Amino acid sequence: MKFLSIKQKSPYSGKRVYYKWIPSKNCSKFKPITQVYGVCFTKEGKILIVKDLRDWKLPGGTPEKNEIPEETLKREVFEEANVIFGDCHMIGVQEVEIEGKKIYQLRYVAVIDEVKKQTVDPATRRTMKRKFIKISEFKKYVKWGRIGEKILLAARKEYENWKEKDGKQNK
Q1: Which of 55, 77, 92, 137 has the most neighbouring CB atoms within 10 Å?
Q2: Cβ count within 10 A of residue 122
Q3: What angle do CA 123, 50, 37 make, to 5 degrees?
Q4: Which helix or strand (DSSP H or E) is residue 91 part of?
Q5: What share of residues in the chain are helix, strand, coil (percent, to 5)?
Q6: Which of 129, 6, 136 is nearest to 57 (CA)?
């Protein structure tokens, strides 16, 4: 397991924040889980990103009470982008430490089954912008630095494994 640790000031709070990328397929040892985000691929290999008021990002959000991470991701992706996917697989955890307190943000990969007409996100009461981008465009839109690169690398590997399996099943 290869970790990547980064120390930087948060662009949002100005506080010193420590980020650590932890490749993992099991979320049981990471508590509290404060976010669940997904790298959602089209069958053609493009990535879904969304934008509300500020920046482009991967779709996802905060778990609701008694919700498992996969349910959070499905709900958030649908609310933000009106996209439906089947299975999703955890690829890792972003550990965030602020003033000695650690929280965990799960990262998943999924393959999109259906794209519907966009509607208002019930959480924000706004319609988010959505875009499907090439993998090579990710850093241009999503400013997650080196950890973002690790997340994308892990997601791409999972997507390529899915594509290989799917290709064998369709023969």
Answers
A1: 77
A2: 8
A3: 75
A4: strand 83-98
A5: 25, 40, 35
A6: 129
